[in-house]
């Protein structure tokens, strides 16, 4: 896999230096995007991205690639709308085709309570600049002819909210394009370099201990997915994070076009079609925290049953592949970005099940914070000390599944 | 798949249980009482390795049990 990535990218992998201005731990979307924006927007090119495996090996390569902004609290809607707008021009900015396809996302409601919640959310989205409208069952059927409006007799569709700007993009391409963009500007990307500790000077973090030796740094950013609590513990930082597995699976090719992304907050599952024609089905994360990448049959069984209530044609398809990523879920279901209270150590975490869509905005704003030392207004609500100051950003409803 | 031994019902699949959270204390190095409260309410150890946690056997005997589990392999110990 790694040889393949290297050949395709024609990148020149560098040897690690002894010191950098900024060291970013984690070569996924967020880490590489932050490195790219540091170099491109702020002229800080003495940056290293340290990755334990190959770039995009973690959640950046395991997610279900949905990009949307229809969140449930104003701060999140503004943040994700900014990210969506950056995605729309990203192919031009990085000069790389990412298969960015606008599909629109439909959120089904099966009860009056859910209809009320969807109406409230669509109004909130409109007020914060993310277009979301309500649809009648007939309008839903027109957008998605395969949908069974009776929901298999058990989950009748009363209506839906529709967010037309929702899109998908090829996740590997996003990761590789950011890596390529950053490396062209002089950023070092160090693959197969595992961080085993943090260098400390008193309380201050002054670098990272890696499998390739110590690397000192002016600032260290943790852009780790999965093992963030372990990394933060090296700096004596405690995080309100639990790491849960999240699974998804694809079927074999479905020969008809399935245009929109279909999502369901009550059934907690979602369905979209990949560029290859496979049906991609995901659901909620596993109930217990775990770092294991094992997939389970019970997930396959329950999510397939849910999806088949809505889309009866799925019962004729076969399961091709099932996989698991481990994602960091924060205590209030919103991401955590910024300073940690320990000098020289920043985090971008809590990306749980909604990190892919946030890559451009997360990277751009973290780069601004690192370069200027000031928290940009869009990041202000997502700082870590919100938990201590009783200003948590609870948004479980709209982030429940992906 | 995760199987959890219940003292009453024997070895049962994880679907019958509800996860009740890790058993954890506030680290001694946090001495400020307000910081200790914040840590107690919000923070998690989230250990990659062996944790001690509470589980509720919801679809069985409906009793709470304490389980030691390795989170890197998602298996119950002992």
Molecular structure report:
- The complex is a heterodimer of chains A (402) and B (78).
- Chain A has 402 residues and is α+β, with helices and mostly antiparallel strands.
- Chain A folds into 2 domains: 2-63 and 171-240 and 331-399, FAD/NAD(P)-binding domain; 101-167 and 242-330, 2-Layer Sandwich (D-Amino Acid Oxidase, Chain A, domain 2).
- In chain A, 29% of the residues lie in helices and 26% in strands.
- Chain A has 11 helices and 19 strands.
- Chain A has helices at residues 2-9, 29-42, 74-88, 90-94, 112-127, 137-143, 171-184, 228-234, 297-310, 359-372, 396-399; strands at 19-25, 47-50, 66-67, 101-102, 105-109, 133-135, 159-163, 167-168, 188-190, 195-201, 204-210, 213-222, 241-253, 261-264, 269-273, 278-283, 319-330, 336-339, 345-349.
- In chain A, strands 1, 2, 9, 10, 11, 12, 18 and 19 form an 8-stranded mixed β-sheet that branches. In chain A, strands 6-7-5-14-15-16-13-17 form an 8-stranded mixed β-sheet, sandwiched between helices. In chain A, strands 3-8-4 form a 3-stranded antiparallel β-sheet, with no helix packed on it.
- In chain A, α2 (29-42) links the parallel β1 and β2 (47-50).
- In chain A, α2 (29-42) packs across α10 and α3 packs across α10.
- The longest helix of chain A has 16 residues, at 112-127.
- The two termini of chain A are 26 Å apart.
- The model of chain A has no long low-confidence stretch (mean pLDDT 92).
- Chain B has 78 residues and is mainly beta.
- Chain B has one domain (3-76): Folate-binding superfamily (Folate-binding fold), CATH 3.30.2270.
- Chain B is 13% helix and 37% strand.
- Chain B contains 1 helix and 6 strands.
- In chain B, 19% of the residues are buried.
- The model of chain B has no long low-confidence stretch (mean pLDDT 93).
- The A-B interface holds A 227, 229-230, 236, 238-243, 245, 287-292, 294, 296-298, 331, 387-388 and B 1-2, 13-15, 18-19, 22, 27, 29-30, 34-35, 38-39, 41-48, 53, 69, 71-74.
């Amino acid at each position: 896999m790694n040889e393949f990535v290297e050949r395709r990218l024609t990148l020149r992998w560098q040897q690690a230096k002894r010191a950098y201005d900024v060291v970013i731990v984690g070569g996924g979307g967020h880490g590489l995007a932050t490195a790219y924006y540091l170099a491109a927007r702020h002229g800080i090119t003495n940056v290293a991205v340290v990755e334990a495996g190959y770039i995009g090996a973690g959640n950046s390569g395991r997610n279900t690639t949905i990009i949307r902004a229809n969140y449930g609290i104003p701060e999140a809607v503004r943040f994700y709308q900014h990210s969506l707008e950056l995605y729309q021009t990203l192919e031009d900015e990085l000069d790389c085709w990412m298969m960015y396809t606008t599909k629109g996302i439909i959120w089904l409601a099966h009860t009056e309570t859910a209809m009320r919640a969807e109406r409230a959310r669509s109004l909130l989205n409109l007020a914060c600049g993310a277009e979301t409208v309500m649809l009648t069952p007939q309008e839903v059927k027109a957008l998605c002819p395969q949908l069974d409006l009776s929901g298999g007799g058990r989950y009748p569709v009363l209506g839906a909210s529709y967010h037309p700007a929702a899109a998908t993009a090829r996740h590997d391409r996003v990761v590789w394009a950011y890596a390529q963009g950053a490396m062209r500007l002089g950023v070092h990307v160090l693959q197969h370099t595992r961080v085993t500790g943090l260098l400390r000077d008193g309380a201050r973090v002054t670098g990272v201990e890696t499998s390739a030796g110590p690397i000192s740094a002016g600032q260290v950013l943790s852009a780790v997915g999965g093992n963030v609590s372990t990394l933060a513990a090296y700096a004596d930082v405690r995080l309100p994070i639990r790491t849960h597995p999240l699974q998804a699976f694809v079927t074999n090719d479905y020969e008809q076009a399935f245009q929109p992304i279909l999502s369901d907050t009550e059934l907690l599952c979602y369905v979209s079609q990949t560029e290859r024609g496979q049906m991609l089905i995901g659901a909620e994360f596993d109930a217990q925290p775990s770092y294991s990448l094992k997939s389970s049959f019970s997930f396959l069984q329950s999510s397939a049953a849910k999806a088949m209530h809505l889309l009866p044609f799925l019962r004729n398809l076969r399961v091709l592949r099932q996989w698991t990523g481990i994602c960091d879920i924060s205590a209030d279901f919103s991401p955590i970005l910024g300073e940690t209270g320990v000098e020289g150590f920043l985090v971008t975490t809590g990306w749980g099940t909604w990190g892919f869509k946030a890559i451009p905005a997360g990277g751009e704003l973290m780069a601004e914070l690192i370069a200027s030392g000031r928290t940009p207004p869009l990041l202000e609500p997502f700082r870590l000390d919100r938990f201590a100051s009783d200003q948590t950003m609870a948004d479980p409803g709209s982030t429940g599944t992906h | 798949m995760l199987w959890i031994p219940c003292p009453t019902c024997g070895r049962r699949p994880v679907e019958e249980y509800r996860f009740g959270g890790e058993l954890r204390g506030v680290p001694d190095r946090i001495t400020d009482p307000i910081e200790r409260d914040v840590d107690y309410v919000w923070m998690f150890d989230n250990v990659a390795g062996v944790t001690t946690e509470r589980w509720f056997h919801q679809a069985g005997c409906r009793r709470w049990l304490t389980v030691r589990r390795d989170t890197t392999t998602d298996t119950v110990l002992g």
